[in-house]
């Protein structure tokens, strides 16, 4: 779940900027200039937030509720930055503020830098939001955003009306943000934002009905993780391209690391068809905050849709007898054959005693909906705490249904299998 602290911190900085900008505007500014430069400043601060989030620092995972949430905020901040920047461009008065020398103004590159930065920002955003563009193609293009950031700094640092003649209070805040942003950018560009890679070798590649289980043996150290966390998996060797995020489906304490991968595109198909035991794999992580053990709710619903079972598989494999939570695992799949690890889940449920398994197969008319849950659960729906992982439409439908049933948003935790 997205935690409030992170977005609140961003909102506070924006508010401070607005107060400083409106409270202490340069004397010569017309109200329209004050308003439009404020929008430009907000756009820049949102871009800076995006840049800071791309550092993947653990502290931000705590503030935002995990890396997947950080990337969601990163995307939203980038989108609003482009909108505010566009309004700034079209709204800013074309005549210079009083006191700015027109000759000096032609010698500085503020306008071309701003326009170029904005064009690249809008194109980059269009590519980022277009799901049809494959991740591997999109990834290199996204690096252009670093250049956009530098261009925008160049734009406002060389705007004579604001910085060379009158340092405004809000301008100083922007300069401070630019310094922090550039440090974060350098940190991310040189890969310092990636957690140390731990080397493994592939021990087995098990073809399940609709997924592939990859079993990794540590070369030296095992990574330390909590059930429900994910890691970036990077197969070594030509043709394996970029790292991919997967939830760790084994339990902490096992001597092997297991990932269960649904065949979705080129990379996951290659894993199923070509990955062989003995190949080196680098794993970076763990990331994520999808932790059902941390909450106080004793009556929990774990809702898994298809491959969304993986975080719960890890939790179940890690659970010890005597756990005082009453857990209903609602496992939704298209048909029985699709339900990976079903027999293991049944065995675990029988062994642990506090787990009730509720399989729902849509082929049999049992969909993951609140009416089906009401039929299968002993207590009213608003008495449980929810942990959900599955396809976006399923999660969105359930969120709506649970809201109608009076379930508080703070009792619903979701994991998004998407970073982009
Ligand atoms: C936090 C998290 C946990 C996940 N856990 C699992 C899991 O346990 N099991 C499972 O089967 N899948 C999981 N996924 C999804 C998995 O990462 C993608 O299905 C996989 O990367 C698809 O790669 P592809 O090239 O085969 O497919 P494509 O068709 O190229 O990609 C499908 C989608 O996956 C995303 N994606 C692709 N490549 C990457 C990448 N390198 N980095 C980030 N996102 C990418 C893109 O949004 C894309 O739209 C998880 C994703 C996230 C973000």
Descriptive keywords:
Four Helix Bundle (Hemerythrin (Met), subunit A), 11 strands, Rossmann fold, 420 residues, Elongation Factor Tu (Ef-tu), domain 3, binds flavin-adenine dinucleotide, alpha/beta
Describe this structure as you would to a colleague.
- By secondary structure, the chain is α/β, with parallel strands linked by helices.
- It has helices at residues 5-23, 31-53, 58-64, 67-91, 102-107, 110-129, 135-142, 144-157, 160-164, 169-189, 266-274, 310-318, 342-352, 370-376, 392-404; strands at residues 197-207, 211-218, 230-235, 244-247, 257-262, 280-287, 299-305, 326-333, 355-361, 385-389, 412-415.
- A six-stranded antiparallel β-sheet has the order 4-3-6-1-2-5, with helices on one face.
- It is elongated and about 80 Å long.
- The protein binds flavin-adenine dinucleotide (FAD).
- Flavin-adenine dinucleotide is lined by residues 68, 131, 134-135, 230, 242-247, 260-262, 264-268, 288, 307, 310, 417-420.
């Amino acid at each position: 779940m997205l935690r409030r602290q992170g977005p609140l911190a961003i909102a506070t900085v924006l508010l401070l900027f607005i107060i400083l900008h409106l409270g202490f505007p340069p004397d010569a500014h017309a109200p329209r200039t004050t308003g439009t430069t404020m929008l430009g400043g907000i756009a820049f601060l949102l871009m800076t937030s995006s840049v800071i989030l791309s550092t993947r620092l653990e502290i931000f995972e705590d503030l935002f509720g995990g890396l997947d949430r950080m990337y969601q905020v990163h995307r939203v901040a980038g989108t609003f930055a482009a909108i505010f920047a566009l309004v700034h461009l079209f709204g800013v008065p074309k005549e210079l503020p009083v006191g700015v020398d027109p000759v000096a103004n032609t010698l500085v590159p503020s306008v071309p830098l701003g326009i170029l930065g904005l064009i690249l920002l809008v194109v980059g955003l269009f590519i980022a939001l277009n799901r049809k563009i494959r991740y591997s193609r999109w990834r290199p293009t996204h690096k252009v955003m670093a250049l956009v950031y530098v261009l925008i700094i160049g734009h406002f640092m060389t705007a004579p009306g604001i910085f060379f003649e009158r340092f405004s209070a809000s301008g100083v805040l922007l300069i401070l943000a630019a310094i922090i942003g550039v440090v974060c950018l350098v940190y991310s560009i040189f890969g310092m934002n990636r957690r140390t890679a731990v080397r493994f070798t592939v021990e087995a590649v098990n073809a399940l009905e609709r997924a592939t289980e990859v079993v990794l043996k540590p070369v030296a150290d095992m990574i330390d993780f909590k059930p429900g966390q994910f890691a970036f998996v990077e197969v070594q060797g030509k043709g394996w391209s970029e790292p991919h995020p997967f939830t760790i489906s084994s339990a902490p304490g096992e001597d092997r690391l297991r990932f269960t991968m649904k065949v979705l595109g080129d990379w996951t198909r290659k894993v199923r068809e070509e990955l062989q035991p003995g190949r080196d794999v680098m794993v970076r992580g763990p990331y994520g905050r999808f932790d059902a053990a941390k909450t106080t709710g004793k009556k929990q619903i774990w809702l898994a849709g298809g491959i969304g079972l993986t975080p719960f598989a890890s939790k179940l494999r890690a659970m010890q007898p005597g756990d005082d939570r009453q857990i209903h695992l609602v496992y939704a799949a298209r048909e029985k054959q699709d339900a990976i690890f079903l027999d293991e889940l049944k065995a675990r449920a029988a062994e642990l005693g506090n787990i009730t398994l509720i399989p729902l197969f849509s082929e049999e008319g049992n969909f993951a909906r609140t009416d089906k849950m009401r039929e299968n659960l002993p207590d009213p729906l608003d008495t449980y705490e929810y942990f959900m992982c599955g396809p976006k439409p399923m999660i969105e439908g359930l969120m709506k249904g649970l809201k109608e049933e009076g379930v508080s948003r703070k009792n619903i935790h979701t994991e998004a299998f998407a970073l982009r």
